[in-house]
Amino acid sequence: MAKTISPLQKARAAYNPKLPKVLAAHGSALKAAMGAPTQSIADQNEIKNLFPNTYGLPVVTFEEPADKPIGAVKAGVILSGGQAPGGHNVIAGLYDGLKKIDAGSELYGFLGGPSGLTDNKYVKFDDAFINEYRNTGGFDIIGSGRTKLETEEQFDTVIKNCKALGITSLVIIGGDDSNTNACMLAEYCARMNSGITVIGCPKTIDGDLKNEWIEASFGFDTASKVYAELIGNIQRDANSAKKYWHFVKLMGRSASHIALECAHQTHPNVTLISEEVEKNKTTLIEIVKNIAGIVKKRSAAGKNFGVALVPEGLIEFVPEMKKLINELNDLLAANAAHFDSLSDAHKIQFVNTKLSHESSHAFSSLPASIQWQLLADRDPHGNVQVSRIETEKLLIEMVGETLSEWKDNGEYKGKFTAVNHFFGYEGRCAAPSNFDADYCYSLGYNASSLIASGVTGYISSVRNLTKPADQWIAGGIPLTMMMNLERRHGKDKPVIKKALVELDGKPYKEFLSKRETWAMEDEYQYPGPIQYFGPSEVCDVTTITMQMEH
Amino acid sequence: MAKTISPLQKARAAYNPKLPKVLAAHGSALKAAMGAPTQSIADQNEIKNLFPNTYGLPVVTFEEPADKPIGAVKAGVILSGGQAPGGHNVIAGLYDGLKKIDAGSELYGFLGGPSGLTDNKYVKFDDAFINEYRNTGGFDIIGSGRTKLETEEQFDTVIKNCKALGITSLVIIGGDDSNTNACMLAEYCARMNSGITVIGCPKTIDGDLKNEWIEASFGFDTASKVYAELIGNIQRDANSAKKYWHFVKLMGRSASHIALECAHQTHPNVTLISEEVEKNKTTLIEIVKNIAGIVKKRSAAGKNFGVALVPEGLIEFVPEMKKLINELNDLLAANAAHFDSLSDAHKIQFVNTKLSHESSHAFSSLPASIQWQLLADRDPHGNVQVSRIETEKLLIEMVGETLSEWKDNGEYKGKFTAVNHFFGYEGRCAAPSNFDADYCYSLGYNASSLIASGVTGYISSVRNLTKPADQWIAGGIPLTMMMNLERRHGKDKPVIKKALVELDGKPYKEFLSKRETWAMEDEYQYPGPIQYFGPSEVCDVTTITMQMEH
Question: Which of A4, A198, A484, B328 would bridge A42 by S-S if both were Cys, CB 3.0 to 4.6 A apart?
Answer without folding.
Answer: A484
